[in-house]
Amino acid sequence: MRAIGQSVYGGPEVLQVFVEVPEPEPGPRDLVVRVHATATNPVDTKVRRGGSPGSPVPSPPLILGWDASGVVIAVGSEVEHFRVGDEVYFAGNVARPGSYAEYVAVDERIVAHRPKTLSHRDAAAIPLTALTAWEALVENMGVTPTDRSSEHARTLLVVGGAGGVGSMAIQIARQVCGLRVIATASRPESAAWCRKLGADAVIDHTKPLLAQLREGGDDGVDLVLNTVQPMQNLPQVLEVVRPFGHVCGIVAPSGPLDLGPLFRKRGHISFEYMFTRPLFAAAPSRQGAILARVADLLDQGVLLGTRTTTMPWDQVQAAHRLLESGRSVGKTVLEVVP
Ligand SMILES: NC(=O)c1ccc[n+]([C@@H]2O[C@H](COP(=O)([O-])OP(=O)(O)OC[C@H]3O[C@@H](n4cnc5c(N)ncnc54)[C@H](OP(=O)(O)O)[C@@H]3O)[C@@H](O)[C@H]2O)c1
């Protein structure tokens, strides 16, 4: 089969379009899926740059891509929930080859039927970011995914509102959990996107956060979903979180963090990593269940798709450059089957 692979670490130019590799064989609980569309995520660029530039990857070719929508073409001997011909979507497991390929093998427990009302292209934009946002809000911060009343709603700040994760987090928090949502965005187009997805207010992360919240009549926020490297902004985030509040970060800290201000507020801090369940086999089927729930919410029109940019998959290098600009809005999808 054809895939996009790399044999050395480095910039977007190391991505080889295409390499020929054997089709995957399903393990006992695996589905083999014909990939129709995949999406780019920052994890792709981080893994692509995962060693010193030009140094060899351990078992070439390394195949990136942890988002997909496609059709099941084979199932392992112990698969229970899917059949050949099922249309599915999933993020996958970063420890296994990704979906920049015509075919990919994935554990059925982290897969769901794709939303019926969405195309493969729109479906491929969803899984990784939806799992991240859902797990952060519901599993880490204890927000109830059924309370859509806005009475006495707690306020969530989404730092990086227009990014892939922010785009799902705004919607799940507002439309599914009934939180009041303030998002950060630094440009007119990213601010407009956050409002379209349901943000009640938008503030600019390049300016002091607390002053802007006060201008809008808020003394702080109850919850923060921080999609930015905490070494860059944690003091500001800890300043805006209210007593007893919760900050959930999704980027691994690159150095020691000063959590002193959180102690005085009896605050909580947690980290979300959406590959934890598949990596450690820690109740991975919860991810299949989350994706099934998200598919229903998309089909009901409660959640909107987040695809903003579509490219043929041979344009993967351009897609990586766009993502690495740090200025993408919503999601970029790569079409594998046009
Ligand atoms: N732990 C996990 O499981 C997990 C899962 C997914 C992603 N992540 C990580 O989370 C991060 C965000 O991922 P993503 O997919 O949302 O990224 P993305 O789509 O590339 O985010 C782009 C957005 O980030 C905003 N932004 C750029 N610099 C910012 C800053 N200093 N402060 C606030 N916002 C800023 C930009 O908004 P403006 O243009 O308005 O400035 C832009 O719209 C990445 O580091 C990724 O690796 C972790």
TrEMBL record:
It comes from the Bacteria. Residues 10-334 form the Enoyl reductase (ER) domain. It holds the Pfam family ADH_N. The keyword Zinc applies. One of its GO terms (molecular function) is zinc ion binding. Keywords: Metal-binding, NADP, Oxidoreductase, Zinc. CDD domains: AL_MDR. Belongs to the zinc-containing alcohol dehydrogenase family. Quinone oxidoreductase subfamily. NCBIfam families: adh_fam_1 (TIGR02817). This is Zinc-type alcohol dehydrogenase-like protein. It comes from Nannocystis exedens.
